[in-house]
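tool_call: predict_structure(chain=1)
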Amino acid sequence: MKHNVYWTHFTHPKMNGTLYIAATDKGICRITWPHETFEVLEAWVQKKIPDASLIENPVALAPYSTELTEYFNGTRTTFTVPYDLYGTTFQTAVWKALATIPFGETRSYSDIAAETGNANAVRAVGTANGANPVPIIVPCHRVIGKNNALTGFRGGLQMKEVLLTLEGYHNYRKQGHERFQF
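tool_result:
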């Protein structure tokens, strides 16, 4: 069965670049970071939904663009759009746990590991967090180190800081390693 994946680009003054957003008929399935190209989106779709046609359709993506705009404008604290997650059972459990972190709050990787039922899976949580296909809407930026240090982030630590600051969260330490400091 052939699937359609609709995409458009998204820009906002608070973003340093363009995001590509994509959705199936079920919901948003992918958001890229400003440093990621359209080819990153294409490769992801080919890998995760190999029978899909990638179709540019800003109208179909308007609800997602609107909620992202409202978020970056500071008028939206929760997302209501549906999502369509493609990942392993463990990854989707992590992503669902991320989605429960309230606006302006953070959790540690250990907290998420415990929430998914495996307190020893801290590094696996970090890996799943980094593979989150719909950042911002599924707020992987709200996960920081137990010591309140910013830690590895696929969007870059500067972007993580921008998103946390946008949400009014300032109780973090900038001393964080780009990768694998949980």
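agent: The CA atoms of residues 10 and 65 lie 7 Å apart. Proceeding to next step.
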